[in-house]
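Lecture notes, structural biology module. Today: joint structure prediction for complexes of two components.
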Amino acid sequence: MNKKNIIHTLEQIALYLELKGENPFKIAAFRKAAQALETDTRSMSEIDDITAIKGIGKGTAAVITDLLENGRSEVLLELQNEIPKGLPPLLKLPGLGGKKIAKLYKELGVDSAESLRVACEEGKVAALSGFGKKTQDKIMKELESFGEKAETHPIWLLDELVTQLNVLLEEIQEIDEFSVAGSFRRVKEQSKDIDFIIATENPVAVKEALLSKLSYQEIIASGDTKISVELQTEGIQVDFRLVSNEEYATALHHFTGSKDHNVRMRQIAKEHGEKISEYGIEQQDGRVLTFDSETAFFAHYNLPFIPPTVRMGGKEFDRLDQIPDLIKLSDIQADLHMHTTWSDGAYAVHEMGQALIDKGYQYGVITDHSQYLKVANGLTPERLKLQRKEIQQFNREHPEFTLLAGTEMDILPDGSLDFDDEVMSDLDFVIASIHSSFSQPQEKIMERLHEALKNPHVDMIAHPTGRIIGKRDGYNPDVPQLIAWAKEYGKILELNANPYRLDLCMEHLEMAARAGVPIAINTDAHAIDQLRFMEVGTKYAQKAWLKKENIVNTWSLKDFMTYLQKK
DNA sequence: GCCGTTTTCGGCCCGACTGTTTTCAGTCG
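The predicted structure, tokenised, for the full assembly:
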């Protein structure tokens, strides 16, 4: 029984308890236990006393032990006996919670999506007390798309929408300040919806402007302070919260979450005899304090500004001393992975170089694809030499900056490398990566990676797993082994900052940092505007608690070159 | 169900919106 299964079982139990109308705190306790396990980076075999973990007590520990020893949970089995298995999925229907579903089951015998649909069609649902015609209609409508709608959306899709919405909000005169909030602001890989906080002294006008400018399928809620719509794009939900200027900082904090982070903050407030809400901090005498910024809000409790990316609800409060050292965008001195028109990029060498200078970087590496990747117009050794001349020319014209000559070289399906040692030794920086034969068995994939890692000329492995968030898992390498090899041979592993990838993922980045393997955060830009991915990349790295010292492209050119030579 | 050294009982974050209600329950984040 692995950890994932245990977490899933605890969450299943919570769902069933919800349908039983159990005490909400008891339900939350099972979810909290599941989350506590998830946050703990150890594997089950490394944990000797589970009750020592905060949030796991006698009851939940018994379930876990049962699972570990017997491979099943008596508690869950009993619940499943008692409650039809068609009911828990109904909790996913918007507007239906445990109590309503329990009532449908007890009074109408509803035990599945199908029987719920029949009950609605016969008008029985509307007749129940506490239900009505509107509720029945809404359920029927939701049932039509039940099981088809994506529950979460990948960050790269939401990023496009947020960019568009930012433009739209900029145009509304009555808005004084706004920001995206929610899990997107925390740089979660996938989110359910998008949240925006808007400061305005004229909410009526803003609401009107919003509803006239947005292209939505449906308005879900439209109150004085909250407007919620389903966008045309993929039916993605966006919530807008309208607050006064004074309330903006606390509202932004509140709606950025996470939920558990807020719970911790409120506990702290309580210890001070205060009460936090989205509108400010209420004092014992009823006065409400507001703040100019989130920084000021945190400072009220003698806390440093906790970046949204690490507001997970636990760990961050134990690691406050590490916050100043967390990697941030301004630490970045270079981008080590980008493409030009020589292969499949959209801009010339000198244009990418100039864009890096505009970013304020000290150096950068041009790393076009190698000859194997024909679809991307990969470079032969001859073309590489020609490209180097262009790079040298650029450096002569820009003495304050250094453009290095590199490659993103393919690791071929048979495990050989696309360039021989002589070609590689001519280059300043050699990236090796896999772009083909993803479905090989793990053993073969690892053989290919090993071949690259042990070659003295290879400096870095790019997007080490090949995943695309929400779309494909990649080629499934044994990452702990990969990290061990990177350590052994002194290689860099990449955090590819393209929001499609974010590869390595958080957990693996933490693992790599613990092992002392250096990380490079690179945009893999194929066009100038993609250099902006460095921002999401550094934020994502914060989630793995990476520090400046872990990241090679925060180093000066001199330190970087020294590292490459002696590694 | 979990937690706690002023606690082993009594809390557990707080508020908006909707749809059902004549004052509030359920859901949601």
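Point to remember: Residues 94 and 243 of chain A are 25 Å apart (CA to CA).
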